[in-house]
Specification:
mainly alpha; Clc chloride channel; 3-stranded antiparallel beta sheet; chloride channel activity; chloride channel
């Protein structure tokens, strides 16, 4: 009897569950982080396969020898399977599915059932991908798909060094020929999606970018791994958040979770990934965004450590600040990193403009008329030529960072590598290749820092540390300058280096580098009217839709018909006295439209939400601010002196207006995006 009462009590409690969004968001963030870590593993193995095709094609017969197969079995047995993930994840997911099944349908409980079911299925799906991916990583490590680039590259035939990047560019151009907006670095698109409020990053583009970038990097193109993973993580987060019915604000946090987890998984640096999400993607540090972003970074890092190498990206280097005067040397390094990042940004955009036919002369217009596969193949060929001058050009080039940190590279090599890596990355991405700029910036900074440290230590041997310390700090300075995110650069290198003493030089170099690059870009960029200026200078009456207001006593059946046929999916509602009260939206019908018994009982005033009515001469910036405060996508517009019908201003109308303005500026050859956003 007592057991029956307990079961009855638990079932009754489950049927009262509402599962508000604040409690779901951290869980969704952790699930997004899990898939970002899986994306990092998939991406790394795709690059490994492409690299293996390039490096190990001649050794294919050797992979079937008995000793190689024995090595494979040993690798599989020693792989990081982490069976505890399944022991924890499967019961939780099955419990959520069971709870979703026993909760009675109807009202807000339908939303609870849907969210529980989706999150549980995503968890099970992540586990089903994790273990095959661990096995694939073990196979890649045995069959020679993971190479020590400094040792393997000199043994590559000269014709293959030229042919591989060319064919890689051709394949990527063909893959992205009908989707040219997918090539490039990936991070600016995520920043724009969050800032514009759209929070939509198509999932198919995320998968396409991962494949295209793996081909670019694996075939020798000069690009980074982080951009595609950031874009892929944000694309997955966008899809999950929209399915779960999150608001615009919650969607932006979830996109930041996916992007931050991608950085955490790429660099094995969870703190830096979380800081990156808040500083670069969201541009804010509020308490409510901490828990989902932190959980996403932790989940992404844990998963990536299973499917990637657990070893840190940087070998531990002993470091100490030799004297207080050495801070001035690190300030000079910050200036150098800021100038390099500025040159990188300008050259990247210049090369893109050149390959698209926007420059003067004969060659640029000729290239602009060629299809994307041809342009990307020519860019790959140019990159292959540069490999003969410096091996750091090949792929992401991060294998050489540890050599620079250990002080094992000569001065001329460091200078040449810094300049050629900058040029090669600009050509690879600008010609139509796909990949990120984060890793190449780290390599450029490490080479520049190593060269700078060599000079400083040569002239002041007793007052300065070795060149390797400057290489590590230069990495942080270049990353901070390129992203204009000093905290991200500081925390990333602090985490990777594992040295507490290096934080002071990092603070000096990263702050100066990011401030200088930001100042130079803002000063030299074309002055185009920003989105903020457009919104502040445009009145609501320009974009509002005139619609008849719904009387307070309109029956639910008639209200439903009007809402479903309205263009905006919302209608203004009057109060019983005939004054404008607020709006009713299609989303508000979700809780009642299935319950036929409610139709005779409810009227428009029962579902309407009280909202402030905007005067027609209100600017769009204020309208968007009110929408954000009220967490809605439409606001009523009051009539002028009662002579005109009521109106609605929607977020979608504002978005279309900005898109039209951007297209108009793009047709004139101007950038519609602020330089700070366009150059991440």
């Amino acid at each position: 009897m007592n057991l029956s009462r307990l079961i009855y009590f638990l079932l009754g409690a489950s049927n009262r569950i509402r599962l508000p969004t604040p409690s779901v968001l951290p869980v969704a963030g952790a699930v997004v982080g899990l898939y970002s870590g899986l994306a990092a593993g998939i991406f790394s193995n795709l690059i490994g396969v492409m690299s293996g095709i390039t490096f190990s094609a001649a050794e294919l017969a050797a992979t079937l020898k008995p000793q190689r197969l024995r090595t494979l079995m040993e690798s599989l047995s020693s792989a990081r399977w982490h069976l505890e993930y399944a022991l924890v994840g499967v019961p939780l997911a099955m419990g959520a599915l069971l709870l979703a099944r026993i909760i009675e349908p109807g009202g807000p409980r339908d939303e609870v059932k849907r969210r529980l079911r989706l999150l549980a299925l995503l968890t099970l799906g992540g586990l089903s991908l994790y273990y095959p991916l661990v096995g694939l990583a073990a196979i890649n490590s045995v069959f020679g798909h993971a190479h020590n680039l400094p040792e393997a590259l000199p043994h590559l035939p000269w014709w293959l060094i030229l042919l591989a990047p060319t064919l890689g560019g051709l394949a990527v151009g063909r893959l992205l020929r009908d989707r040219p907006e997918t090539h490039g670095h990936g991070l600016p698109e995520v920043v724009r999606a969050v800032k514009s409020g759209a929070n939509v990053v198509p999932a198919d583009r995320g998968l396409l970018k991962l494949i295209a970038s793996a081909i670019t990097i694996g075939s020798g193109g000069s690009a980074g791994r982080e951009g595609p993973i950031v874009y892929g993580g944000a694309a997955f987060a966008s899809s999950v958040g929209r399915v779960l019915g999150f608001s615009r604000r919650e969607l932006s946090i979830l996109l930041a979770c996916g992007a931050g987890a991608g950085i955490s998984a790429s660099f094995n640096a969870p703190i830096a990934g979380a800081v990156f999400a808040m500083e670069i993607i969201l541009r804010e540090f509020e308490l409510r965004v901490f828990s989902p972003i932190i959980l996403a970074s932790v989940a992404g890092t844990l998963v990536s450590r299973g499917v990637l190498d657990e070893a840190p990206m940087l070998n531990r280097v002993n470091y100490e600040l030799v004297s207080g005067a050495e801070v001035f040397a690190y300030a000079g390094l910050g200036i150098a990193c800021g100038l390099l990042a500025f040159a990188f940004v300008k050259l990247l955009h210049g090369v893109e403009h050149f390959f698209q036919g926007g420059s003067k002369g004969r060659l640029s217009p000729w290239l602009g008329k060629k299809p994307l596969p041809v342009r990307a193949a020519l860019g790959g060929l140019c990159t292959g030529v540069l490999v003969f001058l410096s091996p750091t050009v090949w792929g992401s080039g991060h294998d050489f960072i540890n050599l620079a940190a250990a002080g094992q590279l000569p001065f001329i090599f460091l200078v040449t590598a810094c300049l050629l890596k900058l040029v090669a990355t600009s050509i690879t991405i600008g010609s139509g290749g796909s990949g990120g700029t984060f890793f190449p910036a780290a390599v450029i900074g490490a080479m520049a820092g190593g060269a700078f440290g060599t000079l400083v230590h040569y002239f002041f041997p007793l007052a300065t540390g070795p060149s390797g310390a400057y290489a590590i700090v230069g990495m942080g300075g270049a990353v901070a300058a390129l992203t204009r995110g000093p905290l991200t650069g500081m925390m990333m290198l602090y985490e990777l280096s594992g040295s507490h003493d290096i934080i002071l030089p990092l603070m000096v170099t990263c702050t100066i580098a990011s401030a200088l690059c930001h100042y130079l870009i803002e000063r030299t960029s074309t002055k185009v009217q920003s989105d903020e200026d457009l919104l502040a200078g445009t009145h609501v009456r320009t974009l509002m839709t005139e619609v008849p207001a719904v009387p307070a006593g309109t029956p639910l059946r008639a209200l439903t018909d009007q809402l479903l046929t309205s263009e905006a999916g919302a209608l203004p509602v009057l109060d019983p006295l005939g004054n404008l009260y607020g709006t009713v939206q299609v989303e508000q019908l979700r809780e009642v439209w299935r319950d036929e018994s409610m139709y005779p009982l409810l009227v428009a005033s029962d579902l309407a939400r009280k909202l402030p009515a905007l005067p027609p001469d209100t600017d769009l910036a204020h309208a968007l601010q009110v929408m954000d405060q009220e967490d809605v996508d439409a606001l009523p517009v009051s009539p002028v002196l009662g002579l005109a019908p009521c109106g609605l201003i929607t977020r979608a109308a504002v978005r279309r207006f900005l898109f039209a303005q951007h297209a108009r500026e793009h047709a004139k050859g101007n950038s519609p995006v602020a330089p700070t956003e366009a150059t991440h």
